[in-house]
Known about the structure:
Number of helices of chain A: 3
Radius of gyration of chain B: 19 Å
Radius of gyration of chain A: 16 Å
Oligomer: heterodimer
Number of strands of chain A: 0
Largest sheet of chain A: none
Distance between the termini of chain A: 30 Å
Helix content of chain A: 55-70%
Number of strands of chain B: 0
Helix content of chain B: over 70%
Amino acid sequence: MTRWLRSFGRFWYDFIVGDDWTIALGVVIAVVLTALAAQAGLAAWAILPVTVTGGLTWSVARARSRKPGTPETTEPLDG
Amino acid sequence: MHDVLLFAAAFLASAVEMVEALTIVLAVGVTRGWRSAAFGVGAALVALAVIVVVLGPAITRLPIDALRVVVGSVLLIFGLQWLRKAILRASGLKALHDEDAIYRAEVDELGQSSSHDWYAFTVAFKGVFLEGLEVAFLVVTFGGAQHNIGLAAAGAASALVIVVIVGAFVHAPLSRVPENTLKFGVGVMLTSFGMFWSAEGAGADWPGGDAAILVLLVAVLAVSLAIVGVARRPATLTSGSAT
């Protein structure tokens, strides 16, 4: 039962968050900042493109600098 | 003349939303398999039918912006994960087919049938459900304003027929595109749609309205290809490609 629950939890974590949790966290923060900027009447639309560009570049750079032979974390459900 | 304009407005606005849904369904169907994607589409259509029947004109009171934020954010996370891996593969930093074995092991561990792909189901469901809800909004608001919801619904139904026919013609050529190129494209599309919806739901106004999606698609593709160019290592130039 414990094993099944752990697998179930891991399934949903992998499903929603995926192999790089910083991407999911970055998206949540960027969307919150977008909402705050929109409320303040600023050009809120620009926040996500800038964050996505920076976050994707950083995430790939991080994977690139990983020691050769070090596997990625579990990543069963995405592309 | 008003009737013609109402029909045309409902047709065109609905077609835009349906093409967005079709894009996502085609992308997921071609890359992950049609069976689960079709289940996702079917489930979304059933959910939409229930909502429309139960709520009727009150559908305009649903918190569509909250839905956009949630669906858009999840699509954006999914899209970035796809894109990140497609970039790593295209750069030669990651093997081309390592996820399939991990995926099957994970599904087996859960004791589920490996023939059902929840990822494809969920992405197809979300795309069709959100866009379908927007079409229902359009029909109710356009039709309600002109006191002719039936004609607006006919415009939307005509758009659906055309979009489905286009999808049927387009999916076969798509199946012949190399796997990682498709995954790259899916990542670009999910990321672009995810950004558009989540920002719109959060209250941002995109310059150019729906046309901003096209700009986002081009921009995300350009940025991704640039990252591939920078990340590609000379020693692994031949081990993976975006094309």
